[in-house]
Amino acid sequence: MTNILPSTGLGYAAMIFVLAAFSVVVITFRILLVVRGYKMISTALVMLHALLFVFVLSSVFRELDNFWNVVAYAAGVGSGNVLGILLEEKLAIGYAELRIISTDGSSEVARILGNHGYGATETSGYGRKGPVKVTICVVRRREVAQVRTLALGADPGCFITIEDIRPLRKRLWAE
């Protein structure tokens, strides 16, 4: 099966790098999907990773005395991890809860978010320096930057935290 790799030393090492990187992209992306509850996709991805893993490692072990194959494998694994994380960030799968805390008593955050079509729940609280408004907004992860921009536009001094969540019921997005 390894005979589909280029037969030259540098080409062989380059292909090991590419396949190792792709394998780790797959497994990194799979782990991030498991955390978000995507069972079927993650199952298919782990099967693909297993195939690639066996293929790439057998290619490395076939010429274990070739230093560049080992380096190519290690570099591919490292690169694949970063690429997998970047891919997941780009796709922004899942949901996030933003908690926006304003010390401004007349906070406009919830109203502005509502005017832009986002559901926002505002409650009153008391912080170290006095009264605060806490606005909670649950959005798709790809919308976090927009909500952050709107919140900072409404209250430039607000404090924002973000948490990845798994909604139990997705009724809000079915409309």
Characterization of this structure:
The chain has 2 domains: 2-91; 95-173, Alpha-Beta Plaits (2-Layer Sandwich). The chain has helices at residues 9-35, 39-62, 67-91, 109-115, 144-154; strands at 95-102, 121-127, 130-140, 159-165. The chain is 54% helix and 19% strand. The protein is of the alpha+beta class and 175 residues long. Strand 2 and strand 3 (130-140) form a beta hairpin. Strands 2-3-1-4 form a 4-stranded antiparallel sheet, covered by helices on one side. The mean pLDDT is 85.
What secondary-structure arrangement, pairings included, does this model have?
Blueprint: H1 9-35, H2 39-62, H3 67-91, E1 95-102, H4 109-115, E2 121-127, E3 130-140, H5 144-154, E4 159-165
Antiparallel strand pairs: 1-3, 1-4, 2-3
Helix pairs in contact: 1-2, 1-3, 4-5
Strand arrangement across the biggest beta sheet: 2-3-1-4
Helix content: 40-55%
- Going by helix content, strand content and strand pairing, the class is alpha+beta
- Supply the number of structural domains: 2
Name the poorly predicted regions: none
Query: How does the major sheet shape up?
Result: 4 strands, antiparallel
The count of β-strands is 4
Radius of gyration: 23 Å
Average pLDDT, all residues: 85
